[in-house]
Design goal:
Catalytic activity: ATP + protein L-histidine = ADP + protein N-phospho-L-histidine
Structural class: alpha+beta
Strand order of the largest sheet: 2-1-5-4-3
GO molecular function, one term: kinase activity
Largest sheet: 5 strands, antiparallel
Protein name: histidine kinase
Distance between the termini: 13 Å
Number of strands: 12
Order of helices and strands: HEEHEEEHHEHEEHEEHHEE
Strand content: 15-25%
Shape: rod-shaped
Helix content: 40-55%
Radius of gyration: 44 Å
Number of helices: 8
EC number: 2.7.13.3
Keywords: ATP-binding, Kinase, Membrane, Nucleotide-binding, Phosphoprotein, Transferase, Transmembrane, Transmembrane helix, Two-component regulatory system
Length: 455
């Protein structure tokens, strides 16, 4: 129980730390992404405005009414980190232009074809190029291939500016900037941040484990003191309860049968209450010892059929008093492995619980079988059933779905908790299926390997 709680606390602490780290990574990455790209956009817009102004001033100074012929004149446009620039006539004819990689001119024109940029519009494109590096030409020699073809992915940021002469549109200037380095930077930054996240997760997990372990110390100590108190108190209560029961039995034997009914009822009620308290103390002591691991379970091979028959005989008077029909379905010989006394106690708890919650005239069936490598125990009743929301909690200590009815039936909410401990101590599972008004079925599966977990 404490281990599971500590594990949940560890996951909770580490999850919160990782949540803050992930938020930090997202904020930092997004901030850098926006800042760097915005800075590139700002530089590109500034370059485009400056070069458009240079062209328009050149046209005004030289009294050029159109762009044709300007390409043969001494006009140089080369911005910083500029991948290409093209000056295009209204008919789409290239007047002047240049690019860092001449092989991609046709691909660039395909990207620009039909694009009329809006005011301050920025366009991002990815260009897939394949080109080779050639050696210099020699006299009488052909070009020599210096390296195999290289495949590149170029990330471009492009914009355009219209060119006017006396408020008349005469052409378009396109400018592109290579921002592949920025994408590469984002890629490596993402790898670095993810690596830091993995490293931080390991550190956060370790720190969370230490924090949860420290947080569990006072809880563990308090539970240990409570467990010791329950065990000591249960042990100390056994003796006076035994003395009281013996005294009541002696009073019952010496009582004159002809005395009034009041005294007989008083003795009867006292005896029942002492028995109920004795059963409660025994259950508390069993659970306290199971928590502390002081109970040593036996691991024997035995025939389970005779013990099941004895349990049926033991609970039969209670069933007869309620006109409940008991049925045992089991093979003549059923070899089981485990602690005979505890498995017998398991049958008694399940049958007693079924009889108590079955109305008069009902049925309780016990099925025993060995299927594969498992011992199967099924207790089926036609009782009142269990609510769906209570089915997951009926194995909790002191839990009773109907407290008033449980008190009337002398229930303390410990029987099924002990049953679950017995099953789990044998490495098995216990499940319940129920429907209100139609009864319940408890199914137990215990491995026949003979392995017993330490209590």
């Amino acid at each position: 129980m404490f281990r599971n709680t500590q594990n949940r606390l560890t996951l909770l602490y580490s999850g919160l730390l990782m949540l803050f780290l992930i938020l930090f990574i997202v904020v930092v990455y997004s901030l850098l992404y926006v800042v760097i790209l915005k800075n590139q956009e700002r530089e590109l817009k500034s370059t485009a405005n400056e070069e458009a102004r240079i062209i328009e001033n050149y046209l005004m100074q030289n009294n050029h009414r159109e762009l044709k012929g300007i390409g043969n004149e001494n006009l140089v446009l080369a911005g910083v980190d500029q991948f290409f620039y093209y000056l295009v006539s209204p008919e789409g004819q290239l007047i002047i232009g240049d690019e860092i990689i001449p092989e991609v001119r046709s691909d660039l024109f395909k990207l620009l074809q039909g694009w009329v940029p809006k005011h301050q519009e920025i366009r991002k494109e990815t260009l897939e190029v394949t080109f080779s590096k050639w050696g210099p030409k020699g006299k009488g020699k052909s070009d020599e291939l210096r390296s195999p073809p290289e495949h590149h992915e170029i990330h471009l940021m492009m914009t355009g500016r219209p060119i006017f002469y006396h408020n008349q549109f005469i052409g378009m200037l396109y400018i592109g900037k290579d921002i592949s380095f920025a994408y590469q930077l984002f890629k490596w930054l993402l790898f670095i941040l993810l690596g830091m996240a993995v490293l931080f997760f390991v550190v956060a997990l370790y720190i969370s484990y230490l924090m949860s372990k420290k947080a569990m110390v006072p809880i563990t100590q308090a539970f240990a003191r409570q467990r010791e108190f329950v065990a000591d108190a249960s042990h100390e209560l056994r003796t006076p309860l035994s003395v009281m029961l013996s005294s009541i039995n002696a009073m019952e034997m010496t009582n004159d049968k002809e005395e009034d009914d009041f005294l007989r009822k008083l003795i009867f009620n006292m005896k029942n209450e002492v028995k109920r308290m004795t059963k409660l103390v025994e259950d508390l002591l069993t659970l306290a010892r199971s928590d502390s691991g002081t109970i040593e379970l036996l691991n024997k091979t035995f025939d389970f059929r005779p013990r099941a028959e004895k349990v049926i005989q033991s609970v039969e008077p209670l069933a007869v008093s309620k006109q409940i029909h008991l049925h045992l379905h089991a093979p003549e010989t059923l070899i089981a492995h485990g602690d005979p006394e505890r498995l017998t106690q398991l049958l008694y708890i399940l049958l007693d619980n079924a009889i108590k919650y079955t109305p008069n005239g009902g049925e309780v069936k016990l099925f025993l079988s060995a299927e594969g490598n498992e011992l199967n125990i099924k207790v089926q009743d036609s009782g009142i059933g269990i609510k769906p929301e209570d089915q997951d909690r009926i194995f909790d200590r002191f839990y009773r779905s109907d407290k008033s009815r449980s008190r009337q039936m002398s229930g303390h909410g410990l029987g099924l908790a002990i049953a679950k401990w017995i099953v789990e101590a044998h490495g098995g599972t216990i499940q319940v299926s129920s429907e209100l008004g139609k009864g319940s079925t408890f199914t137990v599966r215990i491995p026949l390997s003979g392995k017993i977990k330490r209590a």
